[in-house]
Amino acid sequence: MLLFGRVVDPATNYFSCTDKERAIFEAGVKLGSIYHQYTGIPINENNVDYVERAIEKATAAQPFVTKVKVSVDRRKVGKAKSTYRYKTLLGDMMDVRLQIRYGNAVVEGKMAWVPSMRYPLMRFKVLKG
């Protein structure tokens, strides 16, 4: 069983894959949860910094995460002109980078808007393992 921090990963025996494959899986889980948990929340120029930090702190609390950086495109947030002075956070506003360490593998996960696809694409790069 793999140790993370001082805790044994109880899920190790449920996976039949390499450390690299598990790190990629974990990166996908984290990016998917960020997208699906946070799109649609109210955002404006006054709370954008707090939203970024809250997403980072929540993601960093999950197992195997060693780094996380969330940036919201302030140009797209702008000054909300609706009656209630906020917009909702959308996938095209977020740029997320995180790093996962599992065993001997380190993977960088990224979610960012790809204009040519008109889509917030999630992808990864193996840094070690």
How do you describe this structure in short?
The protein has helices at residues 19-38, 48-60, 74-77; strands at residues 3-4, 7-8, 42-43, 65-72, 87-88, 94-102, 105-114, 119-128. It is α+β, with helices and mostly antiparallel strands and 129 residues long. The strands form 3 sheets. Strands 4-6-7-8 form a 4-stranded antiparallel beta sheet.
What does this structure look like?
The protein is of the alpha+beta class and 129 residues long. The chain has one domain: 7,8-dihydroneopterin aldolase (MptD) (Pantoate--beta-alanine Ligase, Chain: A,domain 2). Helices cover 29% and strands 35% of the residues. The longest helix has 20 residues, at 19-38. The protein starts with a strand and ends with a strand. The model has no long low-confidence stretch (mean pLDDT 92).
List keywords for this structure.
about 130 residues, alpha+beta, Pantoate--beta-alanine Ligase, Chain: A,domain 2, 4-stranded antiparallel β-sheet, two-stranded antiparallel sheet, 3 helices
CATH architecture: 2-Layer Sandwich
List SSEs in N-to-C order: EEHEHEHEEEE
According to DSSP, the number of beta strands is 8
Order of strands, widest sheet: 4-6-7-8
Indicate the percent of residues in helices. Answer: 25-40%
CATH superfamily: 7,8-dihydroneopterin aldolase (MptD)
Strand content: 25-35%
| Low-pLDDT stretches | none
Tell me the overall shape. elongated
Based on CA atoms alone, the radius of gyration comes out at 16 Å
Number of self-contained structural domains? 1
Distance between the termini: 18 Å
Q: Structural class, please?
A: alpha+beta
